[in-house]
Write the structure tokens for this entry.
Amino acid sequence: METVQPWPPLGQALFKQQLEDFQVEEVLPFSLSGTGEHLWLWVEKRGQNTAWVAQQLACWVGISSRHVGSAGLKDRHGVTRQWFSLWLPGQVEPDLSTLQLDGVRVLKACRHGRKLQTGALSGNRFVITLRQVDATPDAVSQRLSEIRQVGFPNYYGMQRFGRDAANIDRAWAWVEAGCPRIRPAVRARHLSVLRSLVFNAVLAERVIQDCWQRYVPGDVLQLAGSTRCFVDDGSEALAMRVVEGDVHPTGPLPGEGGLQPRSRAAVIERAVLKRFADLEPLWHKVRMRQMRRPLRVIPQVLHWYYVKEKRELQLSFFLPAGSYATALLRSLFQLKTLTLSSQI
């Protein structure tokens, strides 16, 4: 499943030639208390995936894997720093020196009163190196300057849809079979994939109409740095607030109820949703509530350094939780990879 980009690619670039080419660090929206039944570990992992590390941590302290918390999946092919929580009520602190896992280091540990929940992040810091960059420094600088100002399309990354987009085929097959009962985790994945597919289609149409980053009458808008949304109230200041990055236009994660666009924004959205009319009964059957997702992301603290002689570009930036670094990169280049990315 390809996405529509607002700009032509500047050229090609090699992504993830080395583990250090993709570095990501979680940022929590709160401080740890220092006391409580849950031991939180700040872990650096290299070449390992999140689920495997969580399983190994559970075995290490002798608890069920369901008592290990993490905020989300992090890519195996990179150097990632993320939190894990272990429920250890009434237990003494484990000896961190006894944890021997290839590619895994515990950087610090702290107690807290609650388990780490999925999505409990303010965002992620990235440091990414692209190699064999086929573009001039001036062109790269001009594109990144524009992205720093207006943002980039907030597509769900291709990894959401699985290798060769196979998760889409599986989800549609489940729908066509009448949505039989399946394991909750698989059901949740199917629903997530289908909602992401619809959102990406709405965003692609807004890109085609060159209004993914602009105010459209009737938009449902989200305040920057918040999950709060509101419907266009006719204020004359809204268009300028979008330009200034104070609010963002949104697209649907389909379901029942929720805020609905009006006017021109509704016309655009409904035209796309008609292509997915077969999914309407599903949202009612599973009682899925509609949510909204920003159509764009404006990266924070975006910096870059281009070594022309080596044709290497290093990027550093912060993205809010739920946004994909690969969506930013695909606004720049056609990416060539030497590894198979599973989660970013």
